[in-house]
Each structure stands twice: as C-alpha cells, then as structure tokens.
C-alpha cells in the first residue's frame, strides 16, 4: 500500500515567508563534523523561503570585525560542503565579544546589513553568549542611536533580535538533546582507531590505554567503551571508588586467564578519582605495568576525533536541525525566547536555550560537589542507561554472586545479516547470565533450530563480538512453519523457556507463525521477543532497525568516493542503486546524507514525466557552477524504470551538458563493521523488563503480549504484540503501511532546489527541559 497523507490534517510551511528578512549563520567554539551540513541547510532553507542569508566568518570575531567577514550566501556557495569536516566558514574564540564594546560593534555590523535573525552553531558557551547579546540588543541599539551611528528608524526596524541555536560539539555535553552535531562522527573515529589497535594488541598480547576527548563529559569514553567492549573505562561523571586500582588490575588479570590476548582501557581526558585527583592515561599505564607487568602502550587520539568526514547520522541530524532552525526564526515573535533545536528520540524539538544551558551547568556543579549519581541522572536517561549497560556487560560476577534460575533462553538470528547482530547477541547473553539464566545459542536461524543446532553459550564465548559484522551465529531466511513440529521438539528437549529473535522481516513473520502454532504445541507458549535488525529498516512497529545506520554510512561513504572520483573532470551525474527491497529508507535517507538531487522509491510513485522533470531540473543546475549530480534509486522502486533505463535517459537528455555514470552498491551495504551506538541499552531494556518478568513459576505464556516486537517509536522504546502489527503491514511488499521517514523526502527536495510542500505539523511548539527531565527521571 502506498502512503497517502490527508492534507487537511497537516500544517505546511508555505504561509511562512522569509521575504524582507535576513538571517546570519555562524559557527563558534570548537569545530565538529556536521557543522557544514547545518550551515548548508540554513542557507538553502533560508533562500528557499525568500530570506537573505549571510555567512558570518570566524564566528563572533567576524561579527565584531565586520567587513568581508559578513558576506551574503548563494545557493551554489554551499555546494560540495556536505561531506567536508570542520567548518568552512571558520570558527574562533573571541575575547572581544565578551566585552560590551565588542558586542556594540557586532550589533552595528548586523544592523547595517539588516540582520535580525541569528543561527548560532556551537557549544554552551557560544549559545550563552548569543542569549546575552539578545538580552542587550535594545540597549545596544539605543547606544548606537545616541552616538549617531544608526538612525531612530533603523533602530525601530531592527528592534528585535531572534536567536536559534544548534549544538555542535563532539563531546555531547549539552543537556536537552540526545545527540549533538559531531558526536556520532567522533565515535566513528574512535572505533576505527580501536579496531586498528586491537589487531596489533592481539599479536603481542598488549594492553592499550586510549585517551579520548571529554574534559567535562565522559560520553565519548563511555559509548566507545560499550561499542568496543573495553575492559575498563574512566569518566568524570562517575569516578571510580577507592581501591579501583586493585579492582581494575584484577579484572585485567582475570581476562588474560580466560584466554584473552589483549586489554583495552579507555580514559576520558577529564577523568578523576573520587577526591578530584586527575587520572591520566600515563597514570593508568604505569599502574598496569607496576602491578601486572603487562606490555602496555598509550594512545592519545587528540584532534583525530574532530577530523574526517561527518557520518551519515551527523549529516542528517544537522540538515534536519538547520531546516528546523530557519522555521523557528520565521515563526519567532519579539517575545519568543532564544531557543535551541534539539533531538529527542527520533524527533526534532525546540527548547528554551537558557533552560538547557542551566541544566548543563548543573551537571558540572553536581560533579564539583561530588554528587556523582545526580550528575549522571542530569546528563539524561540515555547517558545513565549507557553507564548501567556498560557495568552490566563488562563486569562479570563470580558464580556465587549470581542469582539462581532454572530458566533457559534461546537466542537466534533470522533473515539477512545486518551489522550489529553480534553486539545484540552479546548483550542478550551477558545480561541473561548476569540475571542467573542459562543462555542457548541457535545456529542458522529457524532451520538450525529444527535440526538441533543448539548449544549453551557462556560469558566468554561472546567476547570481541561487538565490532564484527554479519552474524557469527549464522542466519537464514527460512521460516519456521514447515519445521514447526521439529522446533517444538527441540524446545522440549532443551527446555527452552523464552525466545529472543534478532533479525529482519523473516524474524517478524517467524514470530507470527510461532504464535499461530501455540494452539497445537504447548512448547511454544513461552515469551518471545523480536529485536529488529535489518539494513532495509522495513519492520513495522519500529522507526529504526539495528544495521540500518551502518548501511547508511556505507552508502554515504561510497557516494562521497564516487563523486570524488570525478574531481577535475567535466560535469557528471551519478546514478546509484541501493538495497532495501521495496522499502525506500536507504535511498531516501542516504540521499539526504549524500546531498542527492533525486531518490526514486516504491512508496512515492513516479512516471516518465517525473523523470523528465528531474532531468530538466538537473540540467539547469548544471549550467551554473555546480558540477556534480547524484541520483539514488531503490532496487525495487519500479519494475520498468530500471537503473539502466534511468541511466540511459539521463545520458541522452543530458548530452552537451553532463555525462552519466552508474553504480550498483549491492551487498557491500551489509558487510561493514558494526557501529551500533545506543542499541545496548535497548537490549538491556528488552531482557530486563520483558522476558524475565514472565518467569514466575511455570513458564506458560500464550497471550498476545507474550510475543512482542521491541521498537523505537518517535521518542520511546515500546513493546508491541506482533499480532497487533499485522494491520500495519503490507505483507506483499514487506514494508510498513506508514513510514515516518517519508516526511524527510520534502526536506531532501528543498535542499536540492525543488519546489515542494513540507509538513511542519510537529514543529513550532516550544517545549521545556524541566518537563522533559521530570518525565525522564520518573521513567528511570
């Protein structure tokens, strides 16, 4: 079924005009990957709505100095910057702006150009400075009038300054948003280094101490420790308890006794002990050498973490935030407080800037006063879940400390392999063991289940699984229906009391078939939960699937390389085919991340007239200074308009203006390493709060809610009975009937200079971080 929206229930932005308005965009403070994507989105959205947009080069310093530092931007001036790291408009620390005289000069420079809307991309210091500037604005204008530098009329015309902030910081240290621009890319850099270090560490049986950025926030250290399965992590929010040296050395020694050939310790640069004494990477190295005699090396990543191209996530986040920032400026009134555009779950929200800044400052205050538990909670629910997950997955309890249980849980992968499956299995196994249960690994999906390919899996068996792509358990697309009798027999033989199925659409269908067979097989009356893991992201009941983000990065990286390959040649358009079956998620979101001019998908029907219109549009763009075009096509978007057909059409119609190349990405989208930041807490939630609560007395579960799918919907993780998801599913095309990411398609078209409607029903509501925090804390 094709998705259709009812126009009368939606709010569109056509009535929001930027005519007569001027927007200034600047980047300030430390640079972060993705800042350029945010600048690009602000510029193009601003021009799209009829506003003038100005680059303010070198941050606040450029605003104070004026002159050529403040230049009007054009559509073409932000071309080819989406994939560039850092910030092309420059960033600088500015002492002048901290003075009243400096801000007075900045105000004069803005008024002279008619700029009364500022989009500031930076950290909490940059955003605090912007808010102070706004509060002083009317007073600054009065001073300029009195000194004769501007007229009374000019002061009245520019009487209100509107501020919207976007947080660009690799540290993810700003309260009010789940992720800041640049954090995901920095995590990628760290894990790339860890993967490289692991091979040499194993060769020589070494211990490596990695120091990562984070003077005041341990997010990078914590999540990278989760992602690589580090033996120990030291962060400023939760200093180790007294005696940590002995505990750490004991854990490292125990790991070696179990056969491990390496140890990884990750230290945030701001790590301290409980008494405020700094813990440096060299301090940790000396401790390990002195106490254990291990060959130990230190690697300080430094500014490598800031460098390189932004990840797909950061490009999409920054693009969404940039567009939302322009909408916020268009809707602002003189009384509207300065706001910051944030990410909550999968949704863009607006929060009062100073509420977020104050909450961020409270975290530091709690740390200074040694209220560490409170500091962790103030960081947010995501940070706290990550910390608890790390403790659960990395610190093995001795058998005497484990709770006793007679329950057996089977874990299996079903469907096509997806990056992150192995990390999901590792999480489930270790959490289950920690809870005292016996975990069984099933090889080769339901087919292996029917053949009895089942064996107990222990804590150490899943060591080192986090960074490996594919499925180490083995996975097949076979559905259980034709093997149901044998599967029920294996459930009885091994006394399986619960099932965790990690996989794609076949896993979803498999759970439906197992649930339907319960009336004939009592052995199947056990709790069953599915965790979506597929690059196609086509599972009903969940906005996101494990593996989809990794596939997007593979697509984005490939598109970058393909475009780079044509550098220095004549104008060229690339036609690229992506995977996804009938689901256009990879083509659409990959297109947004790579800066595509068009993305053809099944969910949005198109005909030859649409293709012709796209070719003509691209031809006109190519007559300007733009030299590269990118068109993505989902593999099953049309039976007749194949990749070859589209390639030949563009080649013929573009003669004399551009030439064409085509590329089919294929299964390389499935075979990347697994960078699945954030999914560990998802697995813990699943194991802790659903399956095991069913183990009371004899396990017999045959209600609808005992066979569930765990998915992310908008802002929350929710368990949904698979039987209730049937009405939401297009089984013929193996996609959900409604898909959230379709709302991003107009955004991609706007940034490619197409005239279209953009649904802003979810925009325009200023929320409050206090209310959000109250909900967060009550849910913990």
UniProtKB/TrEMBL annotation:
Q: Where is this region: C-terminal regulatory PFK domain 2?
A: 408-780
Q: Which reaction does it catalyse?
A: beta-D-fructose 6-phosphate + ATP = beta-D-fructose 1,6-bisphosphate + ADP + H(+)
Q: Which family does it belong to?
A: Belongs to the phosphofructokinase type A (PFKA) family. ATP-dependent PFK group I subfamily. Eukaryotic two domain clade "E" sub-subfamily.
Name of the protein: ATP-dependent 6-phosphofructokinase
Matches recorded under SUPFAM superfamilies: Phosphofructokinase
Q: How does it assemble?
A: Homo- and heterotetramers.
What GO cellular-component annotations does this UniProt entry give? 6-phosphofructokinase complex; membrane
Q: What class of enzyme is it?
A: transferase
